[in-house]
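User: Could you go from structure to sequence for me? I need the amino acid at each position, not a summary. Structure tokens:
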């Protein structure tokens, strides 16, 4: 399983890790966990730039993974689950930056599914979230635009990708944290969509 994205993606990795017994290795910002008995491997990889955290900090470029590096590392045989969440770190930039990144992800998803039809892809949509003081970066101000971009970018792959919208759930629960307190419930629900599928 590959968890590709930001800290909410890392939370998904941590949730799955808590459900299985595995040996974890951390190299800089890359996390891996292996259970050889059950042939399960988990990896969390941080998405490519921009990966700023709103107050001027940036990660080292060696800690970030391009879509090409991630998707091309997945073998052509075997069953793989790839979950990706690209959202909050892009909100401080022009929407065209997000569009270009998502198109690059889409191109790699197409290549992966041609090579390995057993790949399962899950895209998590934006969640409601804000920081104090309320500013446009690292918050939900672009959330609805990003939702539209996600749906348009992957429209022709809608039979191959599971899109998991979190906006309405976090809005209804009056959840305004960047890392929703209901994340574990969301992660469990996402796993229910993935596990046992034939695709």
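Assistant: Here is the amino acid at each position, in order:
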């Amino acid at each position: 399983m590959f968890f590709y994205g930001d800290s909410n993606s890392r939370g998904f990795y941590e949730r799955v890790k808590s459900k299985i017994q595995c040996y974890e290795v951390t190299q800089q910002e890359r996390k891996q966990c292996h259970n050889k008995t059950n042939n399960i491997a988990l990896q969390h990889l941080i998405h490519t730039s921009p990966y700023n955290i709103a107050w001027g900090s940036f990660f080292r470029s060696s800690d970030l993974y391009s879509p090409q590096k991630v998707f091309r590392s997945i073998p052509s045989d075997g069953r793989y689950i790839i979950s990706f969440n690209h959202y909050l770190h892009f909100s401080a930039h022009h929407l065209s930056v997000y569009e270009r990144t998502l198109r690059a992800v889409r191109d790699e998803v197409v290549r992966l599914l041609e090579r390995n039809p057993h790949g399962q892809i899950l895209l998590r949509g934006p969640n409601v979230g804000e920081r104090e003081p309320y500013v446009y970066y690292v918050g939900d101000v672009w959330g609805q635009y990003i939702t539209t971009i996600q749906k348009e970018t992957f429209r022709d792959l809608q039979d191959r990708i599971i899109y998991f919208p979190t906006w309405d759930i976090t809005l209804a629960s009056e959840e305004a944290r960047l890392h929703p307190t209901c994340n574990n419930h969301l992660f469990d629900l996402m796993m229910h969509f993935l596990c046992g599928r034939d695709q």
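One structural detail worth keeping in mind: Residues 95-115 form the longest helix (21 residues).
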